[in-house]
Every structure is written in structure tokens, then in C-alpha cells.
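Sequence in, structure out. Go.
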Amino acid sequence: MSVVENLRVVVTLDDGETFEVSAKDYLLSYEVVCELDSDIRGLRGLVSANEFVFALSNQDDRFTPANALSPYFGRLKAGVRVDIFVEQETLGSFFVASWDAKNTVTRRRVDVRCVDRLQSVLNNALGDFITQSNITLREYIRSLLVYLGFSDSDIVVHDSLSQIIDFTVFSGHNVATVLNE
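Output:
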């Protein structure tokens, strides 16, 4: 049995309803992309994360977000949680970034791109995050992550990031841009 045959994708909609797909029914293909950047720029190289991309057979249009006859109508959208499993082992939790139903006469499929929690945070715009002065890089990163909704117990920032930042400024970009500048 190949890994694809053992892979299960569990989609949790915003209202808590779940549905599962696998190679036995709708799952056509998948790819897990692990992005690692060891370049010594920014904090620890460019801040990156992981992606999960999968394709579903959509012969009956059930996975078309705009299909009013779909049991998932109005609920297949960005931000929906996707968990992947092989047997009972969890391979990861992701959030839908795009749900693209490319239905034509000859091609009836859906391509779904998901990102992990870090990437979903990195894509957030920094609205009214406050300017700070005379703090360590470690303190700045910690305060940024708390601002973004992480709890103190979720955050581990290495003690070696002890250089003092005279003041912090951001240019209104997303979190990834700010951290990489």
C-alpha cells in the first residue's frame, strides 16, 4: 500500500462539522512542502513555514465553494482547518489558504493549498502593533507573538537574541515582511 492510500485528510469547517477524504474516494494527489531556510539573514534566515497542497476529484461539484447544492456551500474557504493523518499518526495541521475549483468539461477537480499555523500568522497584516523602544530582540518577538494571539506557553524564543533594539518600527506590511526586514 502506498502512502497516498493510507493518507487521510480531515477538513474541519468553521461550524465544527468535519469531513474526511482519502485515495479511496476523492483524494487525487497531495504534496507536503517543508520550507527551511538556513541563510543567515534577518532573524534566522528568512522566516518560512510548511505547506500542504492536495487535489480532490470534483465530479459531482460537491467541493465547489459557490455550488449552492453542495453540502459544504459557503463553508469551503480560507482559514478552514485541515489535518492530515497516515493510519492514526497525525502528520500536521494546516489552514486553507486557497480553495480553487477548476471545473471544465474535461477537468473536474479542486486544488487546495494549505499553510501551517506559522504561515497563517506570517500572512497577517500588522495593524496597530505598538512601537517599542529599548527592548531586546527576544522581548520584541515575544510581544509580537502575544499580540498575534499566541499564549506565553506557546512561545519559545532563544535567549541568544539579546541585542537591544533602540526602537521598533514596521512599515504596515505583513508579519513575515516585518520579521525579515
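Check: The first strand starts at residue 7 and ends at 12. Residues 37-48 have pLDDT under 50 and may be disordered.
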